[in-house]
Design brief:
Strand content: 35-45%
Helix content: 25-40%
Number of helices: 2
Length: 116
Amino acid sequence: MAENKQYITQVQDKGTVMISEEVVAAIAAQAIMEVEGVLGIGSKPGADRKLLSKGLKITITENNDVTVDCGIVVAYDNPVVNIGKAVQAAVSGAVESMTGVKPVAVNVNVSGIVRQ
């Protein structure tokens, strides 16, 4: 059975631009890894670059409402709530600037903490 992919769809003058959930996940993953204090995405620190989007779930509705759910691993001795807020801001800003759509929610699940 074929997988049902979700897309951000934007109608332009000369056609339609469709941005897949995988692209949104890649944008979010890159933004997350740039936040100081984040060691990985998902449940393992030092995420493999090819698997960065594995700890992410992107939901796109028919109205182009985007929700990002992500799991992160943070470095010990960092204020976890502050890192979560920084991840929310980074992901929201990156997705909006690259797709033109501001996420309605960026949910952050801190799934691990590692002493460096």
